[in-house]
Design goal:
- The complex is a heterodimer of chains A (about 170) and B (about 160).
- Chain A is of the alpha/beta class and about 170 residues long.
- Chain A has a 4-stranded parallel β-sheet.
- In chain A, about 35% of the residues lie in helices and about 10% in strands.
- In chain A, helix 2 packs antiparallel against helix 6.
- Chain B is elongated.
- In chain B, helix 3 links the parallel strand 6 and strand 7.
- In chain B, the strands form 2 sheets. A 5-stranded mixed β-sheet of chain B has the order 1-2-5-4-3.
- Classes of the chains: A alpha/beta (about 170), B alpha/beta (about 160).
- The complex binds iron/sulfur cluster.
Chain lengths: ~170, ~160
């Protein structure tokens, strides 16, 4: 029974603010596509009609962090790039979540080398590590569903009065 | 006369006091000579109407680790006129780690030399803008040198605050 049917029948519903906010947030997770290398192609494919990320209310990929609450880091993060990734993350409003998409992002992957960060958890709080090189789009959708479950358990009050992050000016490399 | 012979004779005739070494491997010609002649040899190869090596495809280096002349700077140049690729090599020692820039000959050498500087630490004299290309400005090391560890030096590259 959908919400419309329930409202038609009774004209009202009772709930808690936490529940309805979490319910609406989890069905409209707006991703910040942080596509840095090959994994980003699979992330783009998850938006096509075959995989259709719109089914989860997450088709709103804007290339600005201002309205996003999920950062999908898809690709190889180098030390030089890590400052940019962190800055964009800091610019996203709370509450926010992070998917580390692919082997590179999660652990440096096959790049055991001086220039690649061996896992973005060294500078970002990661919620889901997504395996694969590259992960298939349906695997990304699976991660999204897990994020949705996590969002559903979120309480609004956990995020009230949270201090703003300190935004540092990037040095010009 | 083949193009290999043409290049050999032209170079020998115009630079009498430069000791060239010509080697051919799989029909590819390589010319090695002293680094102090690099600019004149390059501009000759570019401007000579029969050769016209107008394109600098790549400038890179080799680290021979323990050898006396530790580095070799390698130039790959191409003649559209002859459809011919030529490789130039100049040895550079670690104690005197510099070579003259050829960016006055080929403009694109500007970036190619910056890359070689970034990765091997070879200075290109008279280069107008010798900055790092891939690594951050304040990075101290040169990653493609043989003595640089593959996994880098901990703490040499900064990470954002968590
Ligand atoms: S995990 Fe594989 S596909 Fe993804 S960015 Fe790394 S190399 Fe590319």
């Amino acid at each position: 029974m959908g919400l419309e049917a329930k409202l038609n029948q009774d004209g009202f519903i009772t709930t808690t603010v936490d529940a309805i906010v979490a319910w609406s947030m989890k069905n409209s997770v707006w991703p910040m596509p942080m596509g840095i290398s090959c994994c980003a192609i699979e992330m783009m494919a998850s938006g096509d009609p075959k995989y259709d990320i719109a089914r989860f209310g997450s088709e709103v990929m804007r290339f600005t962090p201002r309205q996003c609450d999920l950062m999908i880091v898809a690709g190889t993060v180098t030390y030089k790039m890590s400052h940019v990734v962190r800055k964009i993350y800091d610019q996203m409003p709370d509450p926010k979540w992070v998917i580390a998409m692919g082997a590179c992002t999660s652990s440096g992957g096959m790049y055991r080398s001086y220039n690649v960060v061996q896992g973005i958890d060294q500078f970002l709080p990661v919620d889901i590590y997504l395996a694969g090189c590259p992960p298939r789009p349906d695997n990304l959708l699976n991660a999204l569903i897990q994020i949705q479950e996590k969002v559903g358990r979120t309480k609004v009050r956990e995020f009230t009065n949270k201090p703003m992050p300190e935004l540092t000016v990037l040095q010009n490399n | 006369m083949t193009i290999n012979e043409l290049i050999e004779s032209k170079l020998k005739e115009n630079f009498k006091d430069v000791g060239f070494t010509f080697t051919t491997y799989l029909d590819e010609l390589t010319v090695s000579f002293n680094k102090k002649n690099i600019v004149e040899v390059c501009s000759f190869l570019k401007t000579n109407p029969e050769l016209e090596f107008l394109l600098s495809e790549d400038i890179t280096a080799i680290d021979n680790a323990t050898r006396k002349n530790r580095f070799t700077v390698v130039y790959h140049i191409f003649s559209l006129k002859n459809k011919f690729r030529l490789r130039l090599k100049c040895d550079v020692d670690e104690s005197d780690c510099n070579i003259d820039t050829v960016s006055s000959v080929w403009k694109t050498a500007d970036w190619q030399e910056r890359e070689a500087y970034d990765m091997y630490g070879i200075k290109f004299n008279n280069h107008s803008d010798l900055r790092r290309m891939y690594m951050p400005e304040d990075f101290e090391y040169h990653p493609l040198r043989k003595d640089f560890p593959l996994l880098g030096i901990p703490g040499s590259l900064s990470l954002p605050k968590k």
